[in-house]
TrEMBL record:
<dbReference type="GO" id="GO:0004029">
    <property type="term" value="F:aldehyde dehydrogenase (NAD+) activity"/>
</dbReference>
<feature type="domain" description="NAD(P)-binding">
    <location>
        <begin position="7"/>
        <end position="116"/>
    </location>
</feature>
<dbReference type="InterPro" id="IPR036291">
    <property type="entry name" value="NAD(P)-bd_dom_sf"/>
</dbReference>
<dbReference type="InterPro" id="IPR051783">
    <property type="entry name" value="NAD(P)-dependent_oxidoreduct"/>
</dbReference>
<dbReference type="Pfam" id="PF13460">
    <property type="entry name" value="NAD_binding_10"/>
</dbReference>
<dbReference type="GO" id="GO:0005737">
    <property type="term" value="C:cytoplasm"/>
</dbReference>
<protein>
    <submittedName>
        <fullName>Uncharacterized protein YbjT (DUF2867 family)</fullName>
    </submittedName>
</protein>
<dbReference type="InterPro" id="IPR016040">
    <property type="entry name" value="NAD(P)-bd_dom"/>
</dbReference>
<feature type="region of interest" description="Disordered">
    <location>
        <begin position="312"/>
        <end position="331"/>
    </location>
</feature>
<dbReference type="InterPro" id="IPR021295">
    <property type="entry name" value="DUF2867"/>
</dbReference>
<dbReference type="Pfam" id="PF11066">
    <property type="entry name" value="DUF2867"/>
</dbReference>
């Protein structure tokens, strides 16, 4: 069948596409920024089209001549995610009905039993599932709790809280029961949902074989990863909002994602049925236990084989257009800091240093200033510097790099990064390499488009530090290349 994947630049979608291809399906991938997928290994095996789930004409074209559509879109990064997700789901439901699709597949969250009010996040996930079920198209809405896999936001939050805090002050919700599921098993159910008969039209709860509290999940993580036993001090007055502030400071997960995730953990999320077994058999080796899922995730991280991460999804505060390739592109004020230096290193040696920037290698200038700015960004609710990078030497288009996004990479000549920290404007950092006789020339441009008076004042306030930060970066990058 021809399967359309909406949300392939996200964590689950990016892993589902190769599974669908392996199952023998034709795959059409729809993305607002298709260029983000230029470097994925399955790029030449799919039909890639540009489209936005909020645009009716885009969805009409994207779903034409197809049988199955996977809805894996979530605007969780946005403060108005409830409204955006509702509008997008309604748009896709209408387009799917008009296109005559035989199946819609959706991945949402398990809703707790009883009449207790749902968190905004869970209520939105539930609403989107209902919109698709009411579309008139046969729909399967899979509902999962915490997904355990390298790179997932839930796993990263669990990992960093456990690894960085030998003594933890915890809220009451760490004693609520949760039924985690391995990402491998989620992909198993999603892939086979495409082949279900048309009379299957309902929600299914999916979950792994273990039911644990979040406290047990942290303690078992410590055992699997070889950490000493964690000491936990419960504090009943620690609200979800306060918990999210703590998660924002300690883990790479920003407050905008941490708050909805934690508000969902306030509920007990355990599957109420397992009817899916009557339609889709479990994997041949069975569903993975929690410890085994942790082992696989940690192995992927150690071997640097993490195909997708939560941070790979587009960050809404930093739109991808326009690009700062033309000095006059903005039609308004554009501040620049330009540095050039020559090195006796070859262009290839210089490029190795450029592409390895960030993460564990740092930013080659005034580490204290970068660290202070990163903490300030975290406190303001931004991403900070702790997202790191997937691989210490190789970058990919569209991936997160600390508080930047890789917007362009032209080996071995150009690396362009777009800022995703909290700023009164938009910013880019370009690192370019050119041959120069027997050596190479390094060119560095920091670009800033201010928004309003705050943006103007911001640039003037940081200008006195540019020689230390940007000048030091140029000197140290070329120095590192010389040392090779």
């Amino acid at each position: 069948m021809r399967c359309v994947v909406l949300g392939a630049t996200g964590y689950i979608g990016g892993r589902l596409v190769p599974e669908l291809l392996e199952a023998g399906h034709e795959v059409r991938v729809v993305a607002r920024s298709p260029e983000k997928l230029d470097e994925v290994p399955w790029r030449d095996e799919v039909e890639l089209v540009r489209g936005d789930v909020t645009d009716p004409s885009d969805m009409a074209a994207a779903l034409a001549d197809s049988q199955v559509a996977y809805y894996l879109v979530h605007a969780l990064h946005r403060s108005d995610f409830v409204r955006v997700d509702r509008a997008a789901a309604e748009n896709v439901a209408a387009a799917a009905r008009e296109a005559g699709l035989s199946r819609l597949v959706y991945l949402g969250g398990i809703t707790p039993a009883g009449d207790e009010p749902l968190s905004e996040h869970l209520a939105s996930r539930d609403e989107v599932g209902q919109i698709l079920l009411d579309s008139g198209v046969p729909t399967v809405a899979l509902q999962a709790a915490v997904i355990i896999g390298s790179g997932s936001a839930s796993f990263e939050m669990l990992r960093y809280l456990t690894e960085r805090l030998p003594v933890m002050v915890t809220p009451r919700w760490v004693h609520n029961r949760i039924q985690p599921i391995a990402v491998r098993d989620v992909l198993h159910y999603l892939t086979r949902a495409a082949e279900l008969p048309a009379d299957v039209h309902r929600r299914f709860d999916i979950g792994g074989p273990d039911v644990l509290t979040y406290l047990e999940m942290m303690r078992r993580y410590a055992v699997v990863s070889g950490l000493p036993r964690r000491v936990v001090l419960p504090v009943p007055v620690l609200t979800p909002w306060l918990s999210a502030q703590w998660v924002n400071l300690v883990t790479p997960v920003p407050r905008s994602i941490g708050i909805p995730l934690i508000e969902s953990l306030v509920h007990e999320v355990v599957r109420r049925e397992h009817d899916i077994d009557a339609y889709i058999a479990p994997p041949a080796e069975g569903l993975l236990h929690y410890e085994r899922a942790l082992e696989l995730a940690l192995t992927r991280i150690r071997d640097r084989e993490v195909p997708t991460r939560w941070s790979d999804a587009t960050w809404p505060a930093a739109p991808s257009d326009p690009l700062p390739t033309d000095p006059d592109w903005s039609g308004g004020t554009m501040y620049r800091d330009v540095r050039e230096r020559r090195t006796d290193a070859t262009p290839e040696q210089l490029w190795e240093v450029v592409e390895a920037i960030g993460g564990e290698h740092g930013w080659y200038s005034f580490p204290l200033a970068w660290s202070v700015r990163g903490w300030a960004d975290r406190i303001a609710g931004g991403v900070g510097l702790r997202r790191g990078r997937r691989d210490p030497h190789e970058l990919h288009l569209g991936e997160a790099l600390d508080w930047w996004r890789v917007e362009a990479i032209e080996r071995p000549h150009l690396l362009r990064l777009r800022a995703e920290m909290k700023l009164p404007g938009r910013a880019w950092l370009e690192l370019a390499v050119e041959p120069d006789g027997d050596g190479a020339r390094y060119r560095q441009r920091a670009l800033f488009e201010p928004h309003g008076l705050a943006g103007q004042l911001y640039w003037r306030a940081i200008s006195p530090f540019h020689d230390i930060v940007f000048g030091g970066m140029a000197r140290n990058i070329t120095g590192a290349a010389n040392a090779t």
